[in-house]
Design goal:
88 residues; mainly alpha; two-stranded antiparallel ribbon; two-stranded antiparallel sheet; 4 strands
Length: 88
């Protein structure tokens, strides 16, 4: 469960990190200087972040998971051995 949350968090933070790297690359004052983060830029970074997260939700919902028509076989213990769940 941690991997999907970490993926979505990384996608949300990515536009802000890229903008900070851009500010650092052009050596425009301090990266954390408030003057370099006007509200208009932060708004568009938020829009980009939400679009990335929503896009990843759509991609995972459309192309992730088991193939259509497959059957889930739950995990079980046979002869003292654990057999993990799977789809077939």
């Amino acid at each position: 469960m941690i991997r999907p949350i970490a993926t979505e968090l990384a996608l949300f933070v990515a536009p802000f990190v890229l903008y900070a790297l851009f500010l650092w690359a052009i050596k425009r004052g301090g990266v954390l200087d408030r003057a370099n983060w006007p509200l208009k830029h932060v708004f568009w970074l938020l829009v980009a972040a939400f679009l990335l997260v929503i896009g990843s939700f759509i991609v995972l919902a459309e192309w992730g998971g088991a193939p259509p028509g497959s059957t889930y076989v739950p995990a079980r213990i046979e002869d003292g051995k654990f057999i993990p769940g799977r789809t077939k």
